[in-house]
Amino acid sequence: MKTFFFLLICMPFFHVISACGQGTAGEAVQQEPAVTAGTVEVYYFHFTRRCVSCVNVQRATEKVLEENYRQELENGTVVYHEINLSDPGSREIARKLGVGRQALIVISGDKGYDLTMQGFMYASRDYERFRSTLEEAIKEVKS
Questions:
Q1: How many independent structural domains does the chain possess?
Q2: Bridging pattern class, strands 103-108 and 40-46
Q3: In this structure, which long-range contacts are made by residues 121-126, counting pairs with CB atoms below 8 Å and at least 24 apart in sequence?
């Protein structure tokens, strides 16, 4: 009986981990160059139906970009894309970047980082750590 209650309590956590937080932990992403040299692209992939953590990752990403990269967003050297994987039109870019579920990816030329795991770990509970992780990835792909 204790096992049953333990599993019942843990079930929502397993769902969030399996549905929203899968991905590599800050590892380099292999993909075709998606942008012109010198341009940093930040992609946030999601489905129409999202959990609170998914929404928090998007909000935190947009906040970091707006607070720290406003000028770059305006002049096009940093570009933010929010892509709904439920839309049929998103399939091509998702296939090109190797994305099949919620993801936060930073790309410039042939360099890229998958920050999905860090996004789900830090966006809701440790914004400063999330901010520094995203900033570091942007800095790294620029160089």
A1: 1
A2: antiparallel
A3: 121/21, 122/60, 123/53, 123/56, 123/57, 123/59, 123/60, 123/61, 124/52, 124/53, 124/56, 124/60
CA distance linking residue 119 with residue 130, whole number of Å: 6
* Residue 26 amino acid letter: G
What's the CA gap between 44 and 130, in Å, rounded? 14
Each residue of 52-104: pLDDT tens digit? 999 999 999 999 999 999 999 999 999 999 999 999 999 899 999 999 899 99
DSSP class of 90:
G
Q: What CATH number is given to the structural domain containing 92? A: 3.40.30.10
3-state secondary structure (DSSP) of residue 96? helix
Apex 129 CA angle, 98 and 90, nearest 5? 25
The predicted model scores a pTM of: 0.74
- For residues 13 and 31, what is the distance between their CA atoms, to the nearest angstrom? 31
Question: What domain range includes position 75?
Answer: 2-142
3 state SS of 125: coil
Bridge-based pairing state of the strands 103-108 and 78-84: unpaired
